[in-house]
Amino acid sequence: MDSRYEIKRMAGGGGSANASPALGGQSRRRKMPPRPADYKLQIIIIGSRGVGKTSLMERFTDDTFCEACKSTVGVDFKIKTVELRGKKIRLQIWDTAGQERFNSITSAYYRGAKGIVLVYDITKQETFDDLPKWMKMIDKYASEEAELLLVGNKLDCETDRIVTKQTAERFVSRISGLRFCEASAKDNFNVEECFLKLVDDILAKMPLEIPSRELSNSILSLQPEPDIPPELNPPRMRCC
Ligand SMILES: Nc1nc2c(ncn2[C@@H]2O[C@H](COP(=O)(O)OP(=O)(O)OP(=O)(O)O)[C@@H](O)[C@H]2O)c(=O)[nH]1
Q: According to the UniProt record, where is the region Disordered (predicted)?
């Protein structure tokens, strides 16, 4: 049995208001199981190779940073539960390979995503120049309803910056509904804020006024459990 459901016997010598005479002064406390999530959402992280997609995901989900990570092969994912707008949200975050040769695999994950994080590296012009190509992928494979967030990563490398904030803002202003922020996975700057803003934007579009009895009985999934598309192999785990 799950240890969360165990009834803990509290050894006691009386004095507790909850003590039961039948237990000879011992009281029973039931440890409550965690409240189930109200929503399950998928977020996908895309962008060119080496921009820090994995690093952003790992910073957000585990608060870790890997200096010498291996390049992602195919896709990987992590789970994180957050609370926003009074709701508990289970996020499944898909980290995709930046290498073009994996596009046929990674594109299968766009469709179910409620949020898309498009990343470039502020120190590498080519990763910014690649953005129109990634926008084409989004147009082709993602849901029109998906919320979009552009992240300029590696803000800790300000002295090596090539892509100015103004240049990025000009790009963003031409695309409706695209949000923008700069962050550093390494320094843990603005990472959580960027992800939570994206989730908040997703929630803002959802019908949150669901009768509480529906919420209490089951996990309300506004989209299918984010399964691995059947035609694909399971996500390949990467190590650091
Ligand atoms: N200075 C700095 N380095 C970073 C940052 N984020 C990631 N890196 C480094 O950039 C390199 C690539 O990071 P990854 O997270 O693997 O990049 P990725 O976009 O997932 O790469 P692919 O899987 O190849 O597409 C690694 O050496 C990281 O340590 C950051 O915020 N600042």
A: 7-34
Q: Is the pTM of this model over 0.80?
A: no
CB-ligand 1 contact for 124 (6 Å cutoff): no
Distance 111 CA to ligand 1 centre (A): 25
The number of residues in the chain equals 240
Residues 131 and 139: beta-carbon distance below 8 Å: no
Q: pLDDT, tens digit, for every residue of 65-90? A: 999 888 999 999 999 999 998 899 99
Ligand 1: atom nearest CA of 238 is: 23
Phi, psi angle pair for 112, to nearest 5°: -85, 0
Closest-CA residue to 61 (of 89, 38, 93, 105): 93
17 token code pair: 């208001």
* 115 within 8 A of 147, measured Cβ to Cβ: yes
CA of 13 to the centre of ligand 1 (A): 57
Whether residue 80 contacts residue 61, with contact meaning beta carbons closer than 8 Å, is answered with: yes
Angle at CA of residue 43, ends 179 and 107, nearest 5°: 100
- Provide CB contacts within 8 A for 223, sequence distance 6+: 40, 41, 42, 112, 114
- How is residue 93 written in tokens? 């975050």
Specify the amino acid at residue 162.
Answer: I
Residue 106 CB–ligand 1 contact under 6 Å: no
Asked whether the beta carbons of 83 and 10 are under 8 A apart, the reply is: no
Residue 27 pLDDT level (bands cut at 50, 70, 90): low
